Structures are given as C-alpha cells and as structure tokens.
Amino acid sequence: MRLFTLLFILTITSCFFQSCGNKQEAVVEVKKKFIEGSNSFELLMFDTINKIDANGFKQGKWIVRKLPGNIVIESGMYINNQKQGCWVRHGLKGEFIDSIYYEKDIPKN
User: Fold this and answer.
1) Separation of first and last alpha carbons in the chain
2) Is residue 94 classed as helix, strand or coil in its secondary structure?
C-alpha cells in the first residue's frame, strides 16, 4: 500500500512540474503611454502621470526617470508647466537626496 501511495504522489508531482515548465509567464505592463488629440499621458498603477495638455503644458503628477533601470530621479506636481509644491529628488541608485518646495516654478526655502 505504501508503494502505491508513493507512486501516486510521484506521478502527480511529475505531472505538475511538467505542466509548470510549459507555461509562459504573463507579462504585466505597468506603464502605458497614451496620446489623445493634443494630450498625452502615462498610466502607472492606475494613476495618471506625466500629462501634457492641449496647450503643451505639463500638468499634474510627474515622475522623471533615468534609463537604464528606469530609476526615479525626481517626482512632484506641475501646474501650467510650472513646478508646484514638494518635489523629491533621488540619486542614481534610487536613494533619497532631498526635497524642495516650489511655488510657481521658484524654489522656496
């Protein structure tokens, strides 16, 4: 009886591993770029980022990246092509450098 149970478990296990080996990994694209008329924007985890309006102005949340590695260099908000509010800067390894507060594209101390 033990031999039968062992053979059964080995058969099921080998079938499982064979089927896993033939499966292809699903590719999940987190970021997509869209262009609608004169507007362009990206989606990142269902959040609209890097939007350019019909007048060519940057609007809303922006994330600036560096390739290769797609490392975030800085992030913050734009209103009518001007930096507004808190912007966070990161180094080339993704480490925090500093944060700067802007009012109409002018850094405030």
Assistant:
1) 79
2) coil
Residue 8 belongs to what H/E stretch? helix 2-22
Whether residue 77 lies inside any domain: the answer is: yes
Domain count, the chain: 1
Q: How far is CA 21 from CA 8, 12, 15, 24, 57, in A?
A: 20, 14, 10, 8, 49
Give the C-alpha separation, 56 to 37, whole Å: 11
**Helix runs in 23-98, H state only:** none
Does 3 reside within a domain?
Answer: no
Q: What is the pTM (predicted TM-score) of this model?
A: 0.60
Structure tokens, 34: 């869209």
Per-residue pLDDT of the chain (109 residues; tens, 9 = 90+): 555 554 455 454 444 334 343 433 333 344 556 666 666 767 776 677 888 888 999 999 999 888 787 888 999 999 999 999 999 999 988 899 999 999 999 999 7
